[in-house]
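Q: Focus on the shape:
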Amino acid sequence: MSVRNFLSLNKKLIETLYYKCIKWKIIANIKNKQHIRIAFMMASEAMWKYDDLYKYLNNDPRFIPFIVPSPFPNQSSNLMYEYDKIIKFCNEKNYNYILSLNNNGLPQISAKEINADIVIYTQPYNRGQKEWRINKFWTNSLFIYTPYGTNIEKENRFYNSLLQNISYIQFYPNIYISRLVNKHIFFKSKHIYTSGDDSFHKYQPHEINTDEWKQHKLSLKRIIWAPHHSIMKNDSLQYSTFLEYANFMLEIAKKFIGKVQFIIKPHPLLLSKLHIIWGYEKTTKYFKQWEFGENTQIVWGKYDIIFRNSDGIIHDSSGFTSDYLFTGNPALFIDNGMVESHLNEYGRKCFNLHYKAHNKSDITNFITEVIINRIDPLKIKRDEFMAQLNNETKYNSIGEFMYETIKHTLS
């Protein structure tokens, strides 16, 4: 049964069992604790957005934050590879973490053994490892939710999920999304906050600025191609244009050698789906062309640094429709005609600040005119919209705002 049907059929059950019998006992118990254990269920390095929050929690002796590496079983054909990437990421960041999977990719620690007072998922979908799903935690733990990306779709399922209905504290990046949650969610909550968007800080030049782009003798323009994963016939969203433009994007990269440098930043779920459609050999061969091309490369993980040092993006990704605008740079959406009808108010505003491509010539023209020749008529409108959103940011750091809110709510 889908989560949506579960919610529809069991609204009264959740209200009676969870809200009246369980939730308030957990809250009272946590408020009386000297040390609060907070488990971040980390599904993917690329979707991690809690650096600042983790730092603030870790510096407060009342909180004990830690990571549970928990990649989704359907996320990759090589689950242990994804798991090892998360472990490496945690080591580099000096994060506390637990060894959660055995050599067969199966959980070796239960929800009870994790012993979390608060659980934070990096994805809202209740379809990860069965041992770590919501129902395994909800008799002993509270939930805090914030989306890893900004939802631009209007469908109810993005604002009325099981996790959103039972989360004690929720954070959303702007007032448009907060309104939609308050409109659609079954169980209204006073702990739904508009925190602002940390992208204002994340994608701006830093004093100490690292650079993940390949270094060239010539000063080349830098363009990201970020294809969405929705290439399967049964995908709930049908935004992807990858299968149509995959070979063309390699051709266009060769055409602009000496002028443009390209990074392909695929959605984390694209690889496993290509293994099904193309097979492992064809998929590997394709991405090796990106990895070893003269002016091309691949980035699978976090993307804030490549965003920060880019000149533009070409994509069909719902999340990046909002995210990339914070760089201030021009963006091209490859539009297959299936996108606009799904968009909410905020999504339409972001979508309308993109140039659109409906064919290969539109992509070539964007690269030539907007990126190379710097003819960018949408720049003024982008800047005005970003200034409006920036007024909603309550703290210099969104992590600081989240930390202060959690601390106050649990006091």
